[in-house]
Amino acid sequence: MQNPIVDPAPFGHYAPRGACKFAVEIARRCAQGWGSKRIAFLMRSLALGRLAGRPVDVVAFGARMRLYPQRSTAEKRLAFTPQYFDPRERALLAERLTGDFVFLDIGASCGGYALFVAALGGPRSRILAVEPHPEVFARLVYNIDESELHNVKAVGCALLDIDGEATLFVNASNEGESSVRFVNADARVVPVRVPAKTLLTLAREEEFSRIDAMKIDIQGAESLVLVPFFAAAPRTLWPKLLLMEYGPLRGEDALEARLAEHGYREILRTRQNVAYAREQGVGTDGRQT
Prior knowledge:
alpha/beta, Rossmann fold, seven-stranded mixed β-sheet, four-stranded mixed β-sheet, globular
């Protein structure tokens, strides 16, 4: 792995300048229409080329972020076009924010979701951001510290069905596409050993009494985490809102059936994600939920 620690220079050292700044400003002003997106993506490409491999310091969702857009698709979106970063999913979360909102971001990357909720939720909210990739985790911690958001905590581990260690397969060209299970066959993959915990272990260590919402994006390993969690965790810990990456080739049909049995119903589906809300009452398995 190259450069395992994020550049520690003060925030603003890598602020976009000149033509890069112009391109970023234009890209961020673009609307949701097809033509506007074409302009935004053109400006994004221009800004990326002007960076010449350097990171970029920007403010997104009210948080300060040092991003490495050349190495992560998520960080490229956050840096140049945050308005296109899962807008319907973020709106759904924003609707449910309360003063003491508890949110878990599993596969947090550099903190897009976690920092959005932390900045919007206020000081009484509690956010846990979980990221296994050591280098990306360092970027996440930097972004949290620079944003001075004291309601979010970062944890560096993978989530699995057992406690211990795991091999994380990192896509060298897109560090956000890392997983303990699914690997892009066409990608250059770097294996990294990381600590691993179950979701229930993590919830107990953090002394959670409830989880209001959870986002999980771990590249095809979602069932490894969720199935044993629902089998062992008390129902008081089952998240009221569950947002997860959707990929039709990763066995979500079986997982969706299990979620339905546990009283969850689909309330949102986008090109990349699906959201479920937990209905109170009795699930189709006949058990009280």
